[in-house]
Amino acid sequence: MLISTIFMWVAIAAGFIIALPSLWLCGQALWPTAAEKRARVAATGNIKSLIIGIVPLLITIAILSKLGKAGLAGVIPLTILLLWGFASADGLATFIGRKVWPYLASSNPWKQTMRGGFVLVGSALLPLVGWVLVLPLIAVMGWGISVRSWFVKPQVEAPAVVQA
């Protein structure tokens, strides 16, 4: 193996380490209500999310099979589907962060997403198993979490009671 090949794989891994948690933090900052809904959905059963996420996976496989014939026109929907899957996995990252670091909920809740995201990405960097199984599983679960969150009503917070 050439040193340039090693540098290429290190650069790809560093890109995932930086990009995915940043994507999840950006989603939480821009759409906090949707991110909270996805975190609640991720906490209520990941097997359901995995099964529901298989439908977009089949669409992605169909696009990949036709990619050679479609050219650049096939890359755009594939990119959108992958971005949707990985961006929707912010609920899973937040769920992991809340389980591992529950004491951060009151002071800096975004740290739960960041740290949970690093745990999730770190598990995806495991050679072979992480690249072939965990990383696609993150996207599939992200799709399932996103679809399930469409059917969850937003939580309405009770108004604060002011004592006189």
Structure description:
This protein has helices at about 5-30, 30-40, 45-50, 55-70, 70-90, 90-100, 110-125, 130-150. By secondary structure, it is mainly alpha-helical. The chain is globular, with a radius of gyration of 18 Å. It has 8 helices and no strands. It has one domain (about 5-150). The termini are far apart.
Output the helix-strand order. HHHHHHHH
Helical percentage: over 70%
Rg calc: 18 Å
How does the major sheet shape up? Answer: none
Number of domains: 1
Low-pLDDT segments, ≥5 res: none
Structural class: mainly alpha
Terminus-to-terminus distance: 74 Å
Dominant shape: globular
Beta-strand residue fraction: under 5%
Number of strands: 0
Write the topology of this structure.
Elements: H1 3-30, H2 32-42, H3 46-52, H4 54-70, H5 72-88, H6 90-100, H7 109-124, H8 129-149
Helix pairs in contact: 1-2, 1-7, 2-6, 2-8, 3-8, 4-5, 5-8, 6-7, 7-8
Summarize the structure.
This protein is mostly helical and 164 residues long. It has helices spanning 3-30, 32-42, 46-52, 54-70, 72-88, 90-100, 109-124, 129-149. The chain has one domain (3-149).
Name the descriptors:
164 residues; single chain; 78% helix; mainly alpha
